[in-house]
Amino acid sequence: MSSSSSTSSSYVVVKQENEAASQAVPVVNMAPIPAYKRRRNEKPGKGLRHFAMRVCEKVRSKMLTTYNEVADELVAEYPEGSNAEQYDQKNVRRRVYDALNVLMAMNIISKEKKEIKWIGLPVTSYQESTTLTREREELMARLNEKQAFLHELIVQQVTFKQLVEKNKKYEQIHGRPSSASVLSLPFIAIKADPGTVIDCSISQDKKEYLFGFSNSYEIVEDMDLLKSMNLSLGLNAGTSTADQLEQAKTCVPKKLHEFLSRIAVESSALDVVEEQPKKKFKSS
Question: CA-to-CA distance for 81 and 64, rounded, in angstroms?
Answer without folding.
Answer: 32
